[in-house]
Amino acid sequence: MISIIHHCSMASKCKTVLLVLLLVVVVVVVECNPANYRDALSKSLLFFQGQRSGRLPPDQQLKWRSNSALFDGRLANVDLSGGYYDAGDNVKFNFPMAFTTTMLSWGTIEYGKRMGPEIKEARAAIRWATDYLLKCATSTPGRLYVGVGDPNVDHKCWERPEDMDTLRTVYWVSPQNPGSDVAAETAAALAAASIVFRTVDPTYSKLLLRNAQKVYQFAYQHQGSYSTSLGSAVCPFYCSYSGFKDELLWGAAWLFRATNAVYYYNLVKSLGADDQPDIFSWDNKYAGAHVLLSRRALLNGDKNFEQYKQEAENFMCKILPNSPSSSTQYTQGGLMYKLPDSNLQYVTSITFLLTTYSKYMAATKHTFNCGGGVLVTPNTLRSIAKRQVDYILGENPLKMSYMVGYGSYFPKRIHHRGSSLPSLSAHPQAIGCDGGFQPFYYSMNPNPNILVGAIVGGPNQNDGFPDDRGDYSHSEPATYINAALVGPLAYFAGTASH
Hints:
single chain; Glycosyltransferase; 19 helices
């Protein structure tokens, strides 16, 4: 380069130097190219179409899926078709499904204005769940249906949802066999969704809220854990390990947000908030309830909610890596690491609380202190949340996107029946219960159907990921992993400039 310049005229020297500078700029731009949050948001919502149970609508975009489980509920003489398969299996577990619905709704309430055209997809994803949850709540007086499909039988099979030939056992809770956890979470889902539809479909919104109040009353009056009532039908799969008091608080908090009624405020106060975990998930709702309730203290200056603001901030101090009270591990690559099984579910849920509390703080220029001179600003929380989102989307040691179909390098062998088995159009013959193991489950080939937008369980504590279909704790996607990330993706899509 130098010798060429040496023999060139001054004008061409300038051109060459300019070209070099341009190349440097291009390289820098490529290297610092931010994640495309808008694309990730779109895909994170498309994923829910791949999890649909029941009769698929004409506008179904993931064409490799077809109608399935059309006669769910028949064993109880009710129609329980619809809803979502929770993960890579063919069971409908209402406890995580209701939490998924609550989180999708909360994300849409907080970040709907940043979603752009995707808000229609968000509402469609929520409604697919709430239509089913309404059936579960209203089909038989005195019963709340809480699941379809025997997990112990289903988990021994590897077959497409379209081919299911396993017994579609129906499970419910009642005053005699209570389930305050699943009922209060269902109430939270219906109440949160009622806010989403308040202006776009007021009639539907009122229906959701009316049933949310009824289901919550049932949860509160007949207290008990659904794990005790249903045993091996839900444990160890979605056992309510944290008990049901967190759901009673969460449900009351959502009903208070939806109604502003003193009755629910009094319930919230009576339930207290003595548990202060460092986790937030489909099982443990305390941190979510604290952040939800803290909004009144931060945005409205309501001193009655000061306690929840304090608890929300105690939670944040347990998450921040440099806080004296931090109890959260981070991998060398910067990923929050909570538990070995499906760690990304905790990452996405906690990230949602980080962006949301940051948003509340920013609105009032609020800051707080974790002790040891650690001052927390809205940007402190936002930066950690962004780091988690970016890690999931590919900014990690493996340079792998943990969202299927996003970027050029993502998991190809996810633990998911429909994705790993050929579609009906490619393989019209039925694949029985055992028929999917050979040659599909044990194959090293990539899955034939791309479950676009699915976020898998994620890497291990050393930032490693084997991309192995059999390693479900890392390779299985789940509705509640995705649902919690929709809000943060919308948040960053709305603030990014690209």
